[in-house]
Design a protein that fits this description.
Layout: H1 2-21, E1 24-28, E2 42-45, E3 48-51, H2 57-70, E4 71-75
Antiparallel strand pairs: 1-4, 2-3
Protein name: Secreted protein
Keywords: Signal
Signal peptide: 1-21
């Protein structure tokens, strides 16, 4: 019973995360040649472009900073 309840919570959270991710578009200026590459360094949410990266710390920080400075998350 507890397992089914936990599965329900996980599915609910996943659905919410998917809905949030689909409600924003990342729009970048001409400095960013491949805007989709910014998703290697973060994602759009209600708070803007949020850092999220699994690579080397300095690469992640530099990539996120560049995208944060040159892109905006626009609510669909």
């Amino acid at each position: 019973m507890l397992s089914a309840f936990l599965n329900m919570i996980v599915i609910s959270l996943a659905a919410t995360a998917t809905a949030n991710a689909q409600s924003y578009t990342l729009e970048c200026n001409d400095q960013v040649q491949v805007p989709s590459g910014c998703f290697d360094y973060g994602y759009c949410a209600g708070g803007g472009f949020i850092a999220s990266c699994s690579g080397q710390a300095s690469d992640c920080q530099n990539g996120h900073s560049f995208c944060f400075a040159n892109c905006v998350c626009v609510r669909n």
